[in-house]
C-alpha cells in the first residue's frame, strides 16, 4: 500500500535526514515509523528494543516531529535507508512546488511496532542535567564493550545489554540508562542544558528542543 506525504521545505528534509542518519548509526538495519494526522508528521525510531516478548530488556523510542506541506493521514513502517535514499533524490531536484513528495510503501515488521507510549497524561518530574545523561551514556557504552567478549553473542550478549541499559539512572527519576544512550546518540542533548523529565502510566519521557525519548520506567537501580 502506497502512502504519500510532502515535507514542508528543504530545511525540514535536512532535519529529517540528520535525525535518521544518527538513528541508522545506532541500528544499521533500523526502521522508522512515520505517523501523520493533518500536517504534523511524527517519526519514531528504536535505538534499543528487545527481539521478542520473552526478553526483558528495555525498548527505547526516539521521536522527532516535523511539518508537512499538506494534510495527510499515514501510519507506516519503512527502512530508514529507504527514506534517506528518497531524501537524497529529492534534494537533487530543482526547487519547485513538487519537491519532497514521498510515495512510501509499508513493508516492515519489527518487534517494537506494537509498543504505544501514552499520548496524554504526561506530568513533569523535574529535570536531568545534560552532563549526567552524557556521562551515563558513555559509561554504559564502555561497560557493554568491556563486559561482552567479541566471541559472545546471542542471548548472553542480549542479557548483558538489557542489564546495562535497563538500569535506572537514579532512584527518583526511574529513567533507564538506555534513554540517556538514545538521547545522546540521536543528537537530542545540548551541552549544559537541562532536559525535562515527564511520566505517564508507567512510562518516562525525556524532552529537548530537538526531540523526545520514550521508554518504560526502569525497574531496577
Structure characteristics:
221 residues, alpha+beta, DNA Polymerase III, Chain A, domain 2, two-stranded antiparallel sheet, 5 helices, 8 strands, 31% helix, DUF8185, DUF8010
Could you describe the 3D structure shown?
The chain is α+β, with helices and mostly antiparallel strands and 221 residues long. The chain has 2 domains: 2-109, DNA Polymerase III, Chain A, domain 2; 123-216, no CATH class. 31% of the residues lie in helices and 33% in strands. It has 5 helices and 8 strands, in the order βαββαββαααβββ. It has helices spanning 10-26, 80-91, 130-147, 154-166, 177-185; strands spanning 2-6, 31-48, 60-79, 101-105, 123-128, 195-200, 203-208, 211-216. The strands form 2 sheets. A 6-stranded antiparallel sheet has the order 2-3-8-7-6-5. Strands 1-4 form a two-stranded antiparallel ribbon. Helix 1 runs antiparallel to helix 2 (80-91), helix 3 (130-147) runs antiparallel to helix 4 and helix 3 (130-147) packs across helix 5 (177-185). The longest helix is centred in the middle third of the chain and has 18 residues, at 130-147. The chain is globular. The chain starts with a strand and ends in a 5-residue tail after the last strand. Residues 117-218 form the DUF8185 domain. Residues 3-93 form the DUF8010 domain. InterPro entries: DUF8010, DUF8185.
Amino acid at each position: 500500500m502506497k502512502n504519500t506525504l510532502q515535507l514542508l521545505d528543504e530545511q525540514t528534509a535536512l532535519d529529517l535526514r540528520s535525525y535518521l542518519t544518527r538513528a541508522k548509526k545506532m541500528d544499521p538495519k533500523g526502521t522508522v515509523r512515520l505517523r501523520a494526522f493533518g500536517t504534523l508528521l511524527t517519526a519514531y525510531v528504536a535505538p534499543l528494543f528487545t527481539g521478542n516478548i520473552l526478553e526483558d530488556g528495555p525498548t527505547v523510542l526516539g521521536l522527532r516531529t516535523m511539518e508537512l506541506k499538506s494534510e495527510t493521514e499515514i501510519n507506516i513502517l519503512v527502512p530508514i535507508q529507504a527514506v534517506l535514499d528518497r531524501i537524497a533524490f529529492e534534494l537533487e531536484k530543482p526547487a519547485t512546488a513538487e519537491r519532497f513528495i514521498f510515495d512510501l510503501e509499508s513493508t516492515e515488521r519489527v518487534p517494537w511496532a506494537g509498543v504505544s507510549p501514552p499520548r496524554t497524561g504526561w506530568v513533569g518530574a523535574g529535570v536531568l542535567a545534560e552532563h549526567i545523561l552524557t556521562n551515563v551514556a558513555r559509561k554504559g557504552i564502555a561497560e557493554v564493550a568491556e563486559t561482552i567478549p567479541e566471541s559472545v553473542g546471542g542471548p548472553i550478549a542480549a542479557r548483558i545489554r538489557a542489564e546495562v541499559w535497563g538500569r535506572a539512572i537514579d532512584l527518583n527519576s526511574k529513567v533507564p540508562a538506555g534513554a540517556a544512550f538514545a538521547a545522546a546518540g540521536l543528537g537530542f542533548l545540548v551541552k549544559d542544558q537541562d532536559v525535562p523529565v515527564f511520566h505517564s502510566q508507567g512510562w518516562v519521557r525525556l524532552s529537548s528542543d530537538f526531540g523526545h525519548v520514550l521508554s518504560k520506567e526502569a525497574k531496577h537501580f
